[in-house]
Write a structure and sequence with these properties.
Elements lengths: L2 H13 L1 H16 L8 H10 L6 H16 L5 H8 L12 H15 L2 E2 L9 E2 L1
Antiparallel strand pairs: 1-2
Helix pairs in contact: 1-2, 2-4, 3-6, 4-6
């Protein structure tokens, strides 16, 4: 990764920290089939919310919704954003746009983000 690319990645990570982490883990899981995280967008997203992103999936959803709004307003280019946080080509998603893919993930997150119970300090205290 070039110095310029690394600078862009860091600026995105500063603006959307949880979302960038989520998407990079998602893409690792998808491309390298790590942790047997499923094969479809829905399977991968649900399993990631249930596993490593359980405690901050709501923040991921908020940041993804903000990113989608900025893309729709023309302030951010979806493909450029993805290229700047992930250097590999995503052949699996050539049939849909990056924005459509983000919207699919957003919809799945909205349906699967755990709801907190009474104690907000206990990360394991979620309803399923």
């Amino acid at each position: 990764m070039s110095k310029m690319s690394l600078t862009k990645l860091r600026s995105w990570e500063k603006r959307f920290p949880e979302l960038c982490h989520f998407l990079r883990c998602y893409l690792n899981n998808m491309i390298f089939e790590e942790l047997d995280q499923g094969e479809t967008t829905e399977e991968i997203t649900i399993l990631m919310v249930q596993n490593q992103f359980r405690t901050y999936s709501k923040k991921v959803l908020e940041q993804l919704s903000e990113l989608i709004a900025l893309i729709k307003k023309g302030k951010i280019d979806a493909n450029q954003f993805l290229k700047e946080i992930w250097s590999e080509k995503l052949y699996e998603y050539n049939h849909i746009s990056t924005l459509e893919w983000f919207e699919i993930i957003e919809k799945i997150l909205k349906e699967n983000v755990p709801k907190r119970k009474k104690d907000p300090l206990d990360p394991d205290d979620f309803e399923d």
